Amino acid sequence: MSRRLIRRNSVASRLMIGTGILALLCFGLTAAISYWRSSEALLGSSREMLREVARHEASEISSDVGSAFNTGATLANTFRIERRADGVSRASAASVLREQLRLQKNWLGISTLWEPEAFDGRDSANINAPFHDATGRFMVYWSYQKDALVREALHSYDKPGEGDWYLAARKSHAPVVLEPYYYPVAGVDTLMTTLSTPIMEDGHFLGTVNITISLDALQKRVARLRPLNVGQAILLSPTGAVMASADTKQVGKKMTDAHTQAMLAQVRSGKVSSDETQLAGADWLRVFVPLRLGDAPEVFALGIMVPKHHVMAQARSLLWVIIVVGLLSAALLSTALYVLLRRQVLAPLAEAVRVSAAVSSGELNSRIAPRRQDEMGQLLLSMGTMQAQLRAVIEAQDDMATRHDAGEMSYRMNAERFPGEYGRMVAGTNDLVDAHVQVQRQLVTVMSRYAVGDMQADMPQLPGEKAALSDAMAATKRNLQAINRQILALAQAAESGDFSTRGDAAAFDHDFRGMVEGLNNLMQTTDINLAELSRLLQSIAAGDLTARMTGDFRGVFAQMRDDANATASQLAMIVSSIQTSAVSIKGAASEIAAGNQDLSQRTEQQAANLEETAASMEELTSTVRQNAEGARQANQLAIGAASVAAQGGQVVNQVVETMSGIEASSRKIADIISVIDGIAFQTNILALNAAVEAARAGEQGRGFAVVASEVRTLAQRSSGAAREIKHLIDDSVQRVGEGSILVHNAGKTMSEVVASVQRVTDIMGEISAASQEQSAGIEQVNQTVTQMDEATQQNAALVEEATAAARSLEDQAVQLTDAVAVFKIEGSTVIAARQRTPAPVAQHLANKSGKVGAAKPRLVKSTSTSDGRWQQF
């Protein structure tokens, strides 16, 4: 059977093919990773090697070309030092430059150019002189022409572009390297560059020393570079111009593409640039390093390149070895797996298929005997376990059915005894039984809620034949809700005071009808008794306090009748007492109103008198205040005059001190001029001695004699100038002394003026202070009178309010008499309300208010202090 299964199903073949494919994929992935890692390692080591080669060559080139910068810097410092010591002439400086160019055969030219009057101050004497131009500035230019050294004048040095060798150094105060340029030398265009070194002194630009070198030697050196025996090198200027390259056609051209400019920007920042590029259809590895020449700020780029395929040759060889080994290993693994599967897997698998077929046909008693402990043996063991679990589930279901038939409705199978899907199958059977039992429990729960009056519960609508249970419960709920609505309607009507409402007893049968009829009888009895009580209250409201409740009442209604009759009797006694008191209140209110009227008239007269006094005090206060203000202003003017006089005195004193200082300084200057005159005299003597010594030296001392003569001339001029300055200083000292005497006199006069003004200021201050005190006293008296007037006005207002209150009380007493006169009381007659004419209180208050308000002065807020002052007054 196992052989037929093997022939019928190609499991072994499929596994063998799949394993072979997986092996190929694994070996392929291994080969790819190995190739990638080895490629990265080779590229990294190659780039590092190129960096080292580039750094070494850049250092060598910088050292060779930088020597020219060092020479230029040495010449610049020499000229600067000799110029300061007046020890170099134009001819000697030109000779020095010529000698330097003669010693450096690889230089094409050397030159120097100075700012106007910066070298020796004799530019005007050299205008259009040999080797000079119309400016007379010191300039030297030596160059090789047909192997001979020739000196020429410089030109175009002030034009941007042509004169950048000079203008750039003057602007930056730093060494400058020009972009490579072609210039004919012996009839041949030669690529060259110029190195310019500025001559600086104390931060000031004096000129430049310039060296022009050919780039042919640099081109040959770069062309000889062959890294890894297959690479090449290239040297770029800061702007991308090719200064040297293995490809001579590229020399002098400018590379302006974005990739090159980005590389140059990275190199200018001091970083090494590494990238890959295509040249002649092949990939190349490139490394550019920064290259500096001397102290110049320009950064050049030296690049080293090698073909990428040359670097990757070793990685490609390793890749082919990995591919061949992987293919052989995949073939061997697939063959071995095929043989193993036929012996170890397919035979046990056939036994498992037989058992599965028996279980699927419902036969759960098959014998399963695993003979191995490997995975196939475990498969057969699992098949036996599955068969046993199915038998256990069927037995548990039979047991639960038996117990339910016996009335044990709460019994359920234990799903935890069964693993996995068997447990879920048992749990599903339990859920089915729970659904039937749950319907019965819902019926019991709903009926329990109806029994306690909770009509909110509903029986869920059941499906199918169970719907009869839902319908019966719904009919029960409708009948209970109907009788409940009848009871609620009667209760709500009684709560709102409507006892005429009756329930519909005909709509119910049996006990429900008896309940509604009993409620109707209760509503009728309550309606009759409350109607009798309402009649009594209506009589009292109409003023008839003699009415009483009569009739046959029972229980609480009899108590209500007795309480209502007692209330009517007590109310009649109270009304009788109120009628008597109202007459007495009216008479007392009339007497109070008459007394308040008389008090109001006297208070108004007193207020008028105080108003006149307050007006007089206001006028007196205004007059005194004006006098005080005038005195204060006069005092301020006097103080200002005193301040101005004091400032004038201080200024005069400062002028006196300044004049004294000027006099002292002038005398010191005269002394210094005397010293300078003596120094000039001594210098003249020394110059004369130097001239004598130079004459003794003969031809060798001629130059020194000229210098001594110039020094003597300068000493004589200094002596004459010193004498003139001394004469002027002496005259200034005399005039300053006379001015000091006049200023001293003016200072004494200003001191006397300041003392007089100060006395006037003191007198005006005393007058102002006395006026202020007088004004303050009168102001206090005025304030006291004003507060008295305010208090009188307040008293008048209070009297008027009391009069109005008495009139109002009298009116209310009349109204009270009229109100209680309407009641009818047993054993007495109706008291007629006496008619009276109400006092015109409102008109009276209006007249009084208008009279007092017309004479009311300026109001001041009343305080407890004002009351004390009133008592003293």
UniProtKB/TrEMBL annotation:
Biological-process GO terms, alphabetical: chemotaxis; signal transduction
Keywords: Coiled coil, Membrane, Methylation, Transducer, Transmembrane, Transmembrane helix
Coiled coil: 466-493, 781-819
Residue ranges of the region described as Disordered: 848-873
Transmembrane regions: 318-341
Matching Gene3D superfamilies: 1.20.120.1530, Methyl-accepting chemotaxis protein (1.10.287.950), PAS domain (3.30.450.20)
Signal peptide boundaries: none
Bias-annotated ranges (Polar residues): 861-873
All copies of domain Methyl-accepting transducer, residue ranges: 581-810
PROSITE patterns noted in UniProt: CHEMOTAXIS_TRANSDUC_2 (PS50111), HAMP (PS50885)
GO molecular function: transmembrane signaling receptor activity
A GO cellular component entry from the record: plasma membrane
Residue ranges of every copy of the HAMP domain listed in the record: 343-395, 530-576
A Pfam cross-reference name: MCPsignal
PANTHER family (UniProt xref): METHYL-ACCEPTING CHEMOTAXIS PROTEIN I-RELATED (PTHR43531:SF14), PROTEIN ICFG (PTHR43531)
Family from the record: Belongs to the methyl-accepting chemotaxis (MCP) protein family.
Protein's recorded name: Methyl-accepting chemotaxis protein
Organism: Xanthomonas euroxanthea
